[in-house]
Amino acid sequence: MEDMKEKVWTISVDLQETDDDTQATAHLKVGDKTYGGWGRARRNPEDPNVPRIGDELAVSRALSDLSHHLIDDVAAEIERFEGNPVSVHP
Fold first, then answer.
1. Residue 89: how many other CB atoms lie within 10 Å
2. Domain locations along the chain
3. Which helix (H) or strand (E) holds 49?
4. Which architecture characterizes domain 11-82 according to CATH?
5. CA quadruple 22, 11, 71, 76: dihedral sign
6. What is the DSSP code (8-state) at residue 25?
7. Rounded to two decimals, what is the model's pTM?
8. Residues sharing a CB contact under 8 Å with residue 88, sequence separation 6 or more, in sequence order
9. 3-state DSSP call for residue 1?
10. Degrees, nearest 5: CA angle 26-28-30
11. How far does Cα 84 stand from its chain's mean position?
């Protein structure tokens, strides 16, 4: 069995919030590339005010957006090596 190398990637997430709106921006630096994702959650005025839910929803959307950017970049890199279109599934 090959020796496994451990790698750690750190994602930072910034949150900005008002009473009914939370926006999250996720950042990931990999080598010389930086990826970003954005997400937003807006509370319906009829819903209870539970800020944690807005934070979690905005962050999950930002991380999802970031992952799509990362997958798109990986697909483009593979296409450059292969010389033809590829499909990379999440």
1. 5
2. 11-82
3. none
4. 2-Layer Sandwich (3.30)
5. positive
6. E
7. 0.86
8. 71, 74, 75, 78
9. coil
10. 170
11. 27
Half-sphere exposure of 24 (CA within 13 A, CB side): 25
**Across all residues in the chain, what is the average pLDDT?**
93
Closest to 54 measured CA to CA, from 12, 28, 19, 26: 19
Report which of 8, 25, 10 is spatially closest to residue 66, judged by C-alpha positions.
25
Mean pLDDT of 49-56: 90
Place of tokens 């950042």: 27
pLDDT at residue 75, rounded to an integer: 94
What is the sign, positive or negative, of the torsion defined by CA atoms of 70, 72, 73, 77?
positive
1, pLDDT greater than 70: no
